[in-house]
Amino acid sequence: MSTREYDLVVIGAGPVGENVADRAVQGGLTAVIVESELVGGECSYWACMPSKALLRGGAALRAARDIAGAREAVTGGLDVAATLQRRDDIVHEWSDESQVAWLNKAHIDLVRGHARLSGEREVTVEAPDGSTVTLVARHAVAVCTGTDAAVPGIPGLAEASPWTSREATSVEVVPTSLVTLGGGVVGVEMATAFASFGTEVTVVARSGLLTTLEPFAGELVGDALREAGVTIRSGGVDAVARDGGGVVVTLSDGSELRAAEILVATGRTPRTEDVGLDAVGLEPGSWLDVDDTMLVKGFDWLYAVGDVNRRALLTHQGKYQARAAGDVIAARARGGEVMDAPWGRHVATADHAAVPQVVFTDPEVAAVGHTEASAQAAGIGIRVLDYDLSWVAGASTYADHYTGRARAIVDEERGVLIGATFVGPDIAELLHSATIAIVGEVPIERLWHAVPSYPTVSEVWLRWLEAWGR
């Protein structure tokens, strides 16, 4: 066993871990990152990037078919083989060579193997060949291990070898039929993608689609899925069994579904079961509770960044946390000023007030900040501004059959936007303007002077202001 010493030891080389290490190194520290799989993590190879690659072809084809002049040029269906090859190109054939090259350029050391906390500021790594190395941190250890798909304890489900998001996004042979358990983001995105491949898809959603967002988001996405041939069932699942012809799913109403494969998309669980939490007095398999600087509560050296702290299970939000954490680790190590007041450099204040997210279905869903329900639950006096996006002039030029909706949530007392939800084709690009307005607490009266271009769908901002009044 050998021992090496660094200022910072990072467990997990996904985009979150990479950013923690990079910011700390930019702040003058030395850093090493430990990875047991591929540098670049879940997002690069099994989540964000491959899933969007699988979705894009179908969305582009549907968009072309909704415009006179373009639809006449569409003479065939989606080329599934070409779509899968494009996905393979985007994930670099599951090679992390380019990511490792970036680590080297950023002066971040890499140790491959399984990392476990083995004491205060100490991490022991078991390499693939069975050898071990102990990494000692002078200042901090950051756990950035992310999450795994949660597989519920439905009788027979585990034995049926279900797909999770990993198998779905890395698929090589598209199944003829697929049952998806869960109506959240992964469930509806993969239903959209596989329906575009010609797969017969059934979504089983106990309580509906996209239930953490505004109700109209799930309604419009559900309408689009049904139009694409997807069957949506409500209620629970009592049992799952695999036989020679695929899987049999028994629903709570006694009916059965049969499909070639089953995808579980019912949530995430922290990847902390085997990272040595017990060695530092924490419960293995638990989410890690942190303050706004990502410091695990009760410690002065242990940080948890990204999905593993359960604040906002989104890659971009994890990278935001990582920038704050890397900077504050460097500041604390060098005796610098810690700017931990709300909206300061070393805190992730947006986790509480302005988390943006996009669901890449067709239509897309883009949301940031409060929904009507969450604002009411928080006791905020609000006014809700709704608008049908098909009424905006830009919608008529965008598509022949535009369907979309937008909702603004305004804090009446302060006169500022605190939430926005958009549903419509390619609507994701409209989201950042709302995020800026919320983070900047731009007064509604000032927004009158932010003139939207004509004719674009962003003219919805003017329609919201007109509904608000002057």
Automatic annotation (TrEMBL):
Write down the species: Microbacterium aoyamense
Per its UniProt record, what Gene3D superfamilies does this chain match? 3.30.390.30, FAD/NAD(P)-binding domain
What family, per the record? Answer: Belongs to the class-I pyridine nucleotide-disulfide oxidoreductase family.
Keywords for the protein's UniProt record, in alphabetical order: FAD, Flavoprotein, NAD
Task: List the InterPro entries hit by this protein, alphabetically.
Answer: Class-I_Pyr_Nuc-Dis_Oxidored, FAD/NAD-bd_sf, FAD/NAD-binding_dom, FAD/NAD-linked_Rdtase_dimer_sf, Pyr_nuc-diS_OxRdtase, Pyr_nucl-diS_OxRdtase_dimer
Q: Which residues form the FAD/NAD(P)-binding domain?
A: 6-317
Report the residue ranges that make up the Pyridine nucleotide-disulphide oxidoreductase dimerisation domain in this protein.
355-461
A single Pfam family, by name? Pyr_redox_2
What protein is this chain from? NAD(P)/FAD-dependent oxidoreductase
**Essential cofactor(s):** FAD
